[in-house]
Specification:
Helix content: over 70%
Strand order of the largest sheet: 1-2
Strand content: 5-15%
Structural class: mainly alpha
Shape: elongated
Distance between the termini: 36 Å
Largest sheet: 2 strands, antiparallel
Amino acid sequence: MDTTKKDASGEIRVEMRMRRKVWKMADRSNDRFVNFEHQRRFEIICLVGEVLDVMTEQEWRHFVQRVQSRKELKRKEEEALKNQQNLF
């Protein structure tokens, strides 16, 4: 997967816009929602966006590499387990 930091940041912005449209707001100018849980979740997605904004391209690539490596390791472990089960 060749997702760029720009792609991820854009997706966060899309999600924030969608939540503003769908969830009932108490104060639109300050991104305040009526529902406490919606407010909490919106603040989390904002924080993720802010983290992406300050992250360098090198940091982004490092984390993407870690995710890909973890997925590959999990795939290999599952394959080894399946092969072991086939022996018996």
